Amino acid sequence: MATILGVAPSPYVRKVILAHEFKQMPYQLKTVFPGSDDSEFRAASPLGKVPGYITDDGFAFSDSSVIIAYLERTNNQNNLYPQSANDYAKALWLEEYSDTKMTEVTAALYFQRVIGPLFFNHTIDETRCQELCDELIPPVLDYLESELQEDYFVGEQLSVADVSIGGGLINLFHADFQIDDIRWPKLSQYQQQFMSLDIVQNCIATEKTMFNQAKSS
C-alpha cells in the first residue's frame, strides 16, 4: 500500500488524498509536518515539503502534481486527466493556478484563522485577514467564476482541476469565508456540490478530527 507523508489539513496533502479517493486507490497517511527531519520523509521530499510519497514497492518522491501524474500512469480507473488535448491543457493550467495563485491567498487566510492558532501559537492578524477577504481573495474567485462553465471546471466529470480548486475552497470553508452567491453564483453552487461529495466529506472529517485533537492538547 502506498504511503502519503504529510498532514491531512495541508491543501497539497488534501489534493493527493482526494485523488486517491476518487481513483479508489488504497493508501495510508503517515503524519509528518513540513520541514520534519524524519529520514523516510526527507528521502521522499528533499526540500522538506509535504506531501512526500512512497509507492508500495518503495519508490519515493514528492510534489502533489507529480504524485497525481504518477497515479494516472499507474491506474487508469476514474481518470483525472481529460482525454482531449485542449481539455488536458486547461485542466493542467487550472491545477497550476490553484497550486500557486489560489493557494497563495486561500491558504494565507486558512493559516491566519485555523492552522496558525491551532498548531503554531499564532495570534490572528485581523488586518491581514481583512486584506485577504476584501482585496486578495475576490479577484481569484472572479477568475474562477469566469472559468466555470458547467458542473465541473473541465469536461463532464471530476478532473485534476476540480481536485485542486475544490481543495482550495475547503481552505475557505475552514476559514469561515463565505462565497457570495450574488457575486459568484456559479462558484457558490459548485462549492456546495463539491463539498457534498462523500470523498470530500470524509476528507473534511479527518481534518476536523486533527483540529479537535490540537485544541484538546
Automatic annotation (TrEMBL):
Keywords, in A-Z order: Cytoplasm, Transferase
GO cellular component, as recorded: cytoplasm
PROSITE patterns in UniProt: GST_CTER (PS50405), GST_NTER (PS50404)
GO molecular function, one term: transferase activity
Cellular localization per UniProt: Cytoplasm
Domain GST N-terminal: 1-79
Top-rank lineage group of the source organism: Bacteria
Pfam families: GST_C_3, GST_N_3
Domain GST C-terminal, chain residue ranges per copy: 87-217
Name the UniProt record assigns to this protein: Glutathione S-transferase family protein
